[in-house]
Predict the structure.
Amino acid sequence: MKILITGGTTFVSKYTAEYFVRKGDDVTVINRGSRKQPDGVTLINCDRTQLGDTLKGTHFDAVLDITAYTEEHVQTLLSSGVTFDDYILVSSSAVYPETNPQPFSEEQICGKNSVWGDYGVNKLKAEKYLKEKFPSAYILRPPYFYGIYENLYREAFAFDCAMKDRSFYIPGDGEMKLQFFNVSDFCRFIEIILDKHPEDHIFNVGNKDVVTVKQWIELCYKAAGKNAEFVSVDKNIPQRNYFSFHDYEYVLDVSKQYKLMADTVSLEEGLKQEFEWYKNNPDSVYFRKPYIEYIEENIIT
């Protein structure tokens, strides 16, 4: 297949580009060339909002739009003169208001989520514009991505604590639920969509099994060959100052995904794979936050 991928140099888009290159597909990426490109891709070096005539007259079997965060991002691409057979947009679970009943399903009304704010609103506007202009497009709404090439300080924070034999400072009782989706499963599901062209065009994606914060930390430590010891942090201390997730619990209904893809990588196995990659590539996680410093300066007594 001839595939166009937006992004291609960090986390999800980088993994996706390499995944389809390995499958033997002809992969073109759009990015600003600020980082090393995946092997085997063709680079269109530009800002996606300033495409000009770069794509005019080109055709792709599929566009995988992984880096669209606004309506303008989709609008610019669709008006570039490019043609394609399929279009898959990566949206977000942030399009569901936190007041909706859970688990969030694709049939629910979408709108502003007070936790995610404009991020979710802009994703929803991008969805709406795409559906109006190209009704046969597919839209994927993931929870938290994880896996090889993760560039946010989430799993890496827990891995660092484990490797330094630190106790983990956990929010409250650690029972807040988290839901994840491995980037390898994400790519597998894209393949299924492009092969089967299902009747549904909007999919929540993710693991059907959710975990508590405590369980997630235990699995991160286990991946590093360690056992986690916990210190409970009072709810009065802002969670985002010392922990890598918002104080927000939600669950997606992913039953439609599972009808098409009956299995996913277990969180335990996925975290093992991510840890092995992180050990050898610690500098790839560049959105680091000073959680450990905050804990040492403001929590430890």
Residues 147-179+207-252+265-299 form a domain with the UDP-galactose 4-epimerase; domain 1 fold (CATH 3.90.25.10).
